[in-house]
């Protein structure tokens, strides 16, 4: 966020200056790529968790852990000036997918 603020404060776009927009878009593309790579790594780890849970017969979902994670991410979102509702929806989407994977691991 700080880098983005610095970039937006130092760049004075001129009408018709496509380089400014291209620079923003390049940054967005880089961030999107980082998000995909981080999600892939997160799912590799949660896949191992799912296999472990299946092996030791733990349930696929852990509501207490989910509640703690959602509260933690909401705090981080607020600190980062991101809508906490959005962060919760995003995390809930990820958690639901992880649980689905854990259920599949349990069934196999």
Structure characteristics:
chorismate mutase activity; 4 helices; CM_bact; 0% strand; isomerase; single chain; Chorismate Mutase Domain, subunit A; mainly alpha; EC 5.4.99.5; elongated; 108 residues
How does this structure look, described?
The protein is mainly α and 108 residues long. It has a single domain, classed as Chorismate Mutase Domain, subunit A (Up-down Bundle). 81% of the residues lie in helices and 0% in strands. Helix 2 runs parallel beside helix 4 (84-107) and helix 3 runs antiparallel to helix 4. The protein is elongated. Pfam families: CM_2. Residues 15-106 form the Chorismate mutase domain. It is an enzyme of class 5 (isomerase).
Rounded to the nearest angstrom, the distance between the terminal CA atoms is 42 Å
CATH fold-level assignment: Chorismate Mutase Domain, subunit A
Q: Can you give the helix content as a percent range?
A: over 70%
According to DSSP, the number of beta strands is: 0
CATH architecture: Up-down Bundle
CATH superfamily, please? Chorismate mutase
Please tell me the overall pLDDT.
90
Largest sheet: none
Q: What's the gyration radius in Å?
A: 19 Å
- Note the total helix count: 4
Unreliable runs: none
Q: Class by helix and strand content? A: mainly alpha
Number of domains: 1
CATH class: Mainly Alpha
User: Beta-sheet strand percentage?
Assistant: under 5%
What is the subunit arrangement here?
Answer: single chain
Shape field = elongated
Order of helices and strands: HHHH
């Amino acid at each position: 966020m700080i880098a983005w603020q610095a970039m937006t404060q130092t760049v004075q776009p001129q009408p018709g200056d496509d380089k400014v927009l291209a620079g923003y878009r390049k940054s967005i593309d880089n961030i999107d790529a980082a998000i995909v790579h981080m999600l892939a790594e997160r799912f590799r780890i949660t896949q191992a968790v799912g296999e472990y849970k299946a092996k030791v017969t733990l349930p696929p979902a852990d509501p207490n852990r989910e509640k703690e994670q959602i509260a933690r991410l909401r705090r981080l979102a607020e600190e980062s000036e991101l809508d906490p509702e959005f962060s919760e929806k995003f995390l809930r989407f990820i958690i639901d997918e992880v649980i689905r994977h854990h259920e599949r691991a349990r069934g196999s």
